[in-house]
């Protein structure tokens, strides 16, 4: 009986943890194709650049593939985006139900992430996290590097189509 109370208390305490501190399960993959960049490639420092995207969400288990339109806000060097495709592993609580429009929300950089790691993007409305899946998106420059890096500040996704 005492063990059940302790487990209940732990569950209650853990539910208040920020998303980055909770154990998250992989619930799918998000692949986004970036639209052509407007403006000249040597534009000023790349601060606050926005790129339109067309994305496909493929659930890891059951659920229909969905298409989203979106906007990516970034700062810094655009080289990681040269290939025009970005990929994220979508993570969430193991209890997450795959429903149409699950990713329709804003995602912002997790300020609580360690400085030497690429910060995941955290959902504004649900505890969904987008973790960079491609090696180029996970690279963090060493302290001696004078080259600017790219930081994805936020993305906004809107459901375009879902067969469900």
Walkthrough of the structure:
With 164 residues, the chain is mainly β. The chain has one domain (19-161). 10% of the residues lie in helices and 38% in strands. The protein contains 2 helices and 8 strands, in the order αβββββββαβ. It has helices at 2-14, 135-138, and strands spanning 25-34, 49-59, 66-76, 85-92, 106-109, 121-123, 129-132, 150-161. β6 (121-123) and β7 (129-132) form a beta hairpin. The chain is globular. Residues 1-21 have low confidence and may be disordered.
Supply database-style keywords.
164 residues, mainly beta, 2 helices
Subunit arrangement of the protein: single chain
The counted number of beta strands is 8
Mean pLDDT, to the nearest integer, reads 75
- How many individual domains? 1
Gap from first CA to last CA: 44 Å
- Shape, per Cα inertia axes: globular
Beta-strand content bin: 35-45%
Structural class assignment: mainly beta
Question: Spans of 5+ residues with little confidence (pLDDT < 50)?
Answer: 1-21
Spatially, the strands of the biggest sheet line up as 1-2-3-8-5-6-7-4
Supply the number of helical segments. 2
Order of helices and strands: HEEEEEEEHE
**How large, in whole angstroms, is the Cα Rg?**
18 Å
Biggest pleated sheet: 8 strands, antiparallel, barrel
- The portion of residues assigned to helices is 10-25%
